[in-house]
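Open question from group meeting: does this chain pack into something compact, or does most of it stay loose? Before anyone orders reagents, we agreed to write out a predicted structure and look at it together. Recording both the input and the output here so the notebook holds the full record.
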Amino acid sequence: MSEIADILAHHSRGEITSSALPRLTIVSSKEPTPPLPVIFSPHFCVVAKGRKRLFLGTETYHYDATSFLVTSADLPLSGQVVEAPYLGFALALDAGLLATVLLEMPPGLDSKNNYHRALAKGIAVTQLEGDLLDPVLRFLRLLDQPKHIPILAPLIEREILYRLLLGPSGEMLRQLALPASQLSQIRRAISCIQTRYNEPLRIEELARLAGMSAPSFHRHFRAITRLSPLQYQKRIRLQAARRMLLSQKTDAASVGFDVGYESPSQFSREYRRLFGAPPSRDSTQVRRALIAEEA
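Structure tokens returned:
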């Protein structure tokens, strides 16, 4: 793990660094952070130094250098660094590549006895063992040997996915890879909400897209995301509003209308509830923090 930390530190260029390895992002922090709400897509995450805490609904997940995190859906998480300096990485999971590895696995290696528990979570923190740590280290070593990345990175990434599929979170990942699984059905509805977040939400349409009855859709959606479809849409709207406020010179009321709110007061109230400050004040504080960090 110390070698992993050294490699990540050498290639880190700030709090978030896109690496030369496909889909791999290096994350670092010099000090503990407050909880930050994000929509977190399917990822495999490892901490080399420090400790992090994630919140999903009323549940809390801790992970450090002895464990790893896997998510299998776009989840409304809040994450914070609780022990610093913090250094780790996040590898985005490719459902198509997972499916390819799954189809090539020998018969008898795929366990199906944890389906309901795996589906109900959509997130897992698991002990980091040597069988997985070994390909992870070889994968990261390629950052120091970029000429080998095009050939070796896909091979080692497949080995990492293979080890994940064999592990305790394997059934959860199998549901991500299989297009007919209930998790994949819910992910289709999630993708629709993310694409059309500023439009009125029609539960019946989302349920049809997922191939479920409305009650069944509600139940499975909440089991995976810990939010109702309407609450999830609000989270997407507010995340989009924050990005707009930070990237555009526009007023909060206009942004609220752009993301689908009809009432400026409701937009401001819900924005403050999620981010801790009204829209204009929050965007100003974030900009000042970014300028201070660059200076």
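Observations to bring back to the group:
The chain is about 50% helix and 20% strand.
Residues 231-294 form a domain with the Arc Repressor Mutant, subunit A fold (CATH 1.10.10.60).
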